[in-house]
């Protein structure tokens, strides 16, 4: 069921959503409210990713779309049923409502359930101080979409980061960190230095270097490669080099001294997979916070 509302308000939207859920017999069991803040250009991809996550995490999804129109108005679209796990409410804001989505969204939040805010584009400079960010229990940004990805992370490390914030550039490292730790466990020799190879100005690479710095306490450098993304992590030991390097878009090989070459899956995951991972852990991520803080220190 799809319901269109023109020049509407939050009360009308809430009533229409409730009636739609009743008429379709949609069961309860929603686990959170997901607020997605996007531009019209980002909307389609963000909508598809948010909808896909609902299969694992049934949610009320509030798509807040800020337009450039100067005439103050709000149009809404409500989707219930038709394969939608939960409901999806798109709010198209214009004029004076742009940037004031919190007042519109607040009456539509599900009671007693966590609220997650996601900025699929450049994001906001201060997630925890953003009007929508302040009402969220978890705030998700993606520095890889910023004009200055590494600089954006450094700025957050130096004062705009809050314990409830995370960034998908860190989530992209989950498999890399697991493979590096596994390879190192098989060598068990002291590491004297480390190298991360990646495309220039890569936010995940900067976080990987900071994480290695925290974990190993050795000099870590970032060298530029042709990409895509991170292409290798090399750990220097007195027994030889321990390395994990990408050989295909979906595979990596890791090298351990005195052991045969091995391969492992290293898929470049879509955004929906990254979001689903974050939704499984809505609490603070101490490892990310330590890596982010070290990144700020490394930047000087």
From TrEMBL:
Any Pfam family the entry gives: OpcA_G6PD_assem
Recorded superkingdom: Bacteria
Residue stretches making up the Glucose-6-phosphate dehydrogenase assembly protein OpcA N-terminal domain: 50-157
Protein name: Glucose 6-phosphate dehydrogenase effector OpcA
InterPro entries found in the cross-reference section: G6PDH_assembly_OpcA, OpcA_G6PD_C, OpcA_G6PD_N
Glucose-6-phosphate dehydrogenase assembly protein OpcA C-terminal domain ranges (all copies): 164-292
